[in-house]
Amino acid sequence: MPEERPARGLLDSSVVIDLDRLDPLRLPVELAISAVTLAELAAGPHATDDPDERSRRQDRLQRAESAFDPLPFDHEAARAYGRIYAAVAAAGRKARGARAVDLLIAAAALAAGLPLVTRNGADFQPVRHLVDVIVV
């Protein structure tokens, strides 16, 4: 029997980037993103010198902006980040630098009570007891 699709889920940046290549039946019925994901996508065009890649990233950003009303990173998400950070630190992994953005997105999912949908399941292994992680 096929697994039932979750009703809702928060997409991390890796899923938004690959969204047009993913089978929609593997995704939750209702998709959401965090303002943190939108910020990461907004930085993308500025992180490359290749004009073609910059154009692709700008297009991806504009499509995400038109398709989603991002969940804010509010005080509940900020508190949830403390729990996420503690779980990652307890697992002996770093929770700073570029990895911190992924953890902020996980905190947004925790605060919203939504599963986190990702392409990078191993990145979220230390927080699986806090957030339902769906790897697609």
Topology of this structure?
Blueprint lengths: L7 E4 L1 H6 L11 E3 L2 H9 L7 H17 L7 H16 L7 H15 L3 E3 L14 E3 L1
The ordered H/E elements are EHEHHHHEE
From the structure provided, what is the oligomeric state, counting identical versus distinct chains? single chain
The proportion of strand residues reads: 5-15%
Walk across the major sheet and give the strand order.
Answer: 2-1-3-4
Mean pLDDT: 94
Query: Cα distance, first to last residue?
Result: 18 Å
Annotation, overall tally of beta strands: 4
**What helical percentage do the residues reach?**
40-55%
Outline:
globular
Radius of gyration: 15 Å
* Low-confidence parts: none
Main sheet record? 4 strands, parallel
- What structural category characterises the helix and strand content? alpha/beta
Quick structural overview:
By secondary structure, the protein is an alpha/beta fold.
Protein architecture, described:
With 136 residues, the protein is α/β, with parallel strands linked by helices. Helix content is 46%, strand content 10%. The chain contains five helices and four strands; from the N terminus they run βαβααααββ. The protein has a four-stranded parallel beta sheet. Strand 1, helix 1 and strand 2 (30-32) form a beta-alpha-beta unit. The longest helix is centred in the middle third of the chain and has 17 residues, at 51-67. The relative contact order is 0.20. The mean pLDDT is 94.
